[in-house]
Amino acid sequence: MTAPLSGPPHEGQPREGTLWEGVPGKNDTLHILHLEDSDLDHELVTMSLEGEVPWTLGIERVEDEAGFLEALARRTPHLILSDFSLPTYDGLSAFRAAHERCPAVPFIIVTGAMGEEVAVDTLRQGVTDYILKQRLERLGSAVRRAMSEVEARARRRDAEREVRTLNESLRVRLEEVERLRGVAERQSQRLEVQARQLEEALNLQKTFLAETSHELRTPLTALHGYLRRAEREAGGSQTLQDAQRVAENMTRLVNDLLQLSRGELVQGIEMHFINLGNVLRQVGRDFGVRAPEQNQEIVGDPGRLTQVFANLVNNAVRVCGSADLVHIELSNIPGAVEVRVVDRGPGVPDHIKPRIFDKFFRGKEAGSAGLGLTIAQQVVTSHGGSIDVTDTPGGGATFRVRLPLPEEDEE
């Protein structure tokens, strides 16, 4: 089946004046520009290709230099077929014109007669292949081979680009290493001094994290003190209790961040019977999102679970831009309870989902170090549960946390 190239470009075709390199998809059209002055030869070429290539054929025929150059200016085909000798033009001149405008497009000469020396010369100048009109049964395989070479070049070009990028990154890193090494050598006169400086450099990250953690914990400790004094002076209130709880969660989060940055697991899980419904309603009140009314008793650490759901709800509200687009659901499944933090935001792309819980992974709109979901996953795993993310029907993301129900002998 063939379709002419003339006329306005269809969907998937290049626009006028643009280059169109590469291989079409399995169900797409292979666009061929055929330079041939003989109606019969054009028909024979078309018939020899039908059923021999895995694409629908779109063949545009031109007969002379003017038509050929005009067709190239209008759009670039996937492949060019050309007779070698025409009344006012020739195949090599056509090849040179095509190579100047679209060097990546394969160019195959289809001719009635060609001496061996001429054939070798055309290949030496860069022509992709040549086929004798008496052997048109070879044309299909020649076209498939030419398009395979185009695809291979594209892949090689992508690989080379990636290698160049990696080499540039390596060069920058090596320059930084050399710079640091030069500083160490200039400041050091003996091998022992160089060894100490190297050890200091290796410990720099741990020192930075420890100092950062201390700087964060100091104002939190003062905040705890102010809240306790306020409670003594003004009496207990729900607002002060909420503020104390949030301050405790922030302190726990700072400690968790420090542990994870050092490669340690989240610690300090204290398990006992809790009402999970109360935990979810408290998080809902903190962030202004709708939470379930039902109660559900499980065995867990209320502070750690609050940390998990607060992180999920906070992320959802930040991404959606409004708490009205976020709510919490609670339901029972066989042997477990499932909590769902549902949002109507932009959702999580499929290629991001497998990595979203990785340490230091940051999404496009991240505003943190990329540890919040890692902490949530470790806390849930420590409770014997699981956490994942799926699409919200109608748009958005749903984070699902499954926690085991108490065994009968525990109740």
Automatic annotation (TrEMBL):
Kindly state which keywords UniProt assigns to this record, in alphabetical order: ATP-binding, Coiled coil, Kinase, Nucleotide-binding, Phosphoprotein, Transferase, Two-component regulatory system
Question: What is catalysed by this protein?
Answer: ATP + protein L-histidine = ADP + protein N-phospho-L-histidine
Instruction: State a single Pfam family of this protein.
Output: HATPase_c
- Family matches, as SUPFAM superfamilies: ATPase domain of HSP90 chaperone/DNA topoisomerase II/histidine kinase, CheY-like, Homodimeric domain of signal transducing histidine kinase
Domain of life, source organism = Bacteria
Presence of the UniProt keyword Kinase in the record: yes
Q: Which residues carry this modification: 4-aspartylphosphate?
A: D83
Q: Which residues form a coiled coil?
A: 149-204
CDD domains for the chain: HATPase, HisKA, REC
Give any GO molecular function from the UniProt entry.
Answer: ATP binding
The answer to whether UniProt assigns keyword Glycosyltransferase to this entry is no
Histidine kinase domain: which residues? 211-407
Q: Which InterPro entries match?
A: CheY-like_superfamily, HATPase_C_sf, HATPase_dom, His_kinase_dom, HisK_dim/P_dom, HisK_dim/P_sf, Sensor_HK_Regulatory, Sig_transdc_His_kin-like_C
Give the region (Disordered) as residue ranges.
1-22
Name this protein carries in UniProt: histidine kinase
